[in-house]
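Extended Data, panel c. Modelled sequence:
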Amino acid sequence: MAEAAQRLLDSLRNSPCLDVRHKEEGDGEIPAKVLVDYSMERRRKQKMLCSQLQVLRFLLELLQEEDTANWEEMSPELLNKEVEEVKKKWKSLRSEYQEKVNEVEELIPQLLEKIQLIQERKTQLEEAMERYQAQAKERLQHLQEVFQEQQLVVQKCQVQMEQLKDEVQTLEQSVDRWIRTVNRDSKLAGLLSMHGVSLLAVGENELLLDLHIIGKTEMPPLRVNLHLSSEGEFQLAPEDAKLTLPPELQRGATSHIVPIILELQCWYRSHARLLKELKELHERFAIEWRPAERQLLFLHRNKQHRLAIGAGYPVSGGVWLLSVTGAGPCDTADKLKPPVENPSLSDWLEYLHGYPDYSTQ
């Protein structure tokens, strides 16, 4: 009997009828007032059911202690005492339950007000959402129309931009050519305005110039060809193929024409006598002038004579023989010297040219 009662109690605890939140599937939204009335009616039934369950629990506990309790030894006073304790516990639980009920009853009106307020706000939000969706739809349609119009404008602008790019590119090429021409002409104008420079001939990209030594009219001018390239560079070459200019003065940027011409004039002023002498010696002897090393190679009778020319020659520098190489026995360089004091380059070549053949000695 006790087991059957316990199963009944467990089934009542798990019964869906005790769950206030339970509702059947497929039910729609229930109004708040109906839920409150329903909850209050169910609370009343649950209160009554709970009191019955408490009595049933008390009876089940007595039945469970049937085997261990000695009913014959228990006196009526002891039983009354236990009954009083159970009644006290029951009253305590009942008062606690009543307090909770009162708290719930006090909260119900506040919850109803909050539910009503939430429903009103929900209605307002739904109306606002409908208005917003309608406005958003109108704006989206308007934006699509504006976007299509702007796309047409952008396409027209792109076509115009491509046309303008072609025109600008053409103008830039013309401006570049004009700037290069102006720069070249300004440099040439500055070059022609220099004292000591004479313009002999003008070609499409070439000029023939004479560089004079100021104050020394007896010295012939240095005649050079100035070639202008389309890359903004120029190149200088002496008209006399036997004459060699310093490498650093043979080419450069168009913007450096004037400084290089001035340096070339200074170089020619210091080397004019030497160059004049070398030009005369080229007509008589087989020589090769190396300006970077300031050395002269003289070929005579299968022998090569290497002479060094000091800086400042012929004013301050001297000339001396460095080596003699070739077929047959050769005298050493220190044994060969013209019979004059401070011999010039011409003296050395005359002496070596007339010196007896080493192979016949």
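The longest strand covers residues 319-326. This feature is highlighted in the accompanying rendering.
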